[in-house]
Amino acid sequence: MTFEERIEALTQSLELAARLQMDAAERHDQQIAQHDREIERIDREIERTNRTLRWAIRLGVREARNERKRRQELDRRLTERMEDIAADADRRHRELEELLRRFLARGGNGQH
């Protein structure tokens, strides 16, 4: 093999190595770009999930507050009703005691 043939073979080897290096660098750049796009997509999904969670938490807090208000109102109404029933029962008890007292005060053997 002559000197020129060796130089030509080395030149072709270097050109091939340079092409392979350029191809590898291009594939690497494409992978990096794809990776960056994937990270951006994941970031958007995370942000959308975070917005949904914040909305759901606000909704849950609002519902819990409303439910607590409803329970407090129901408790208040139930307490008032129980107080009314107790007052009515006490009044009826006193009326029955008075009726019984008058009945017993009349005396007799039941022939009135």
3D structure, described in words:
The protein is an all-alpha fold. It has a domain at 1-77. The protein contains one helix and no strands. The longest helix has 104 residues, at 3-106. It is rod-shaped and about 155 Å long. The model has no long low-confidence stretch (mean pLDDT 94).
List its traits.
1 helix, 0% strand, rod-shaped, single chain, mainly alpha, 112 residues
Query: What does the oligomeric state look like here?
Result: single chain
Q: What is the molecular shape?
A: rod-shaped
Beta fraction: under 5%
Average pLDDT taken over every residue: 94
Give the terminus-to-terminus CA distance.
153 Å
The helix content is: over 70%
Given as residue ranges, the uncertain stretches (5+ residues, pLDDT < 50) are: none
- The assigned structural class equals mainly alpha
Number of strands: 0
Mind telling me the C-alpha Rg?
47 Å
H and E order:
H
Number of helical regions: 1
Largest sheet geometry: none
Can you describe this structure in just a few lines?
With 112 residues, the protein is an all-alpha fold. It has 1 helix and no strands. The model has no long low-confidence stretch (mean pLDDT 94).
Secondary-structure map:
Blueprint: H1 3-106
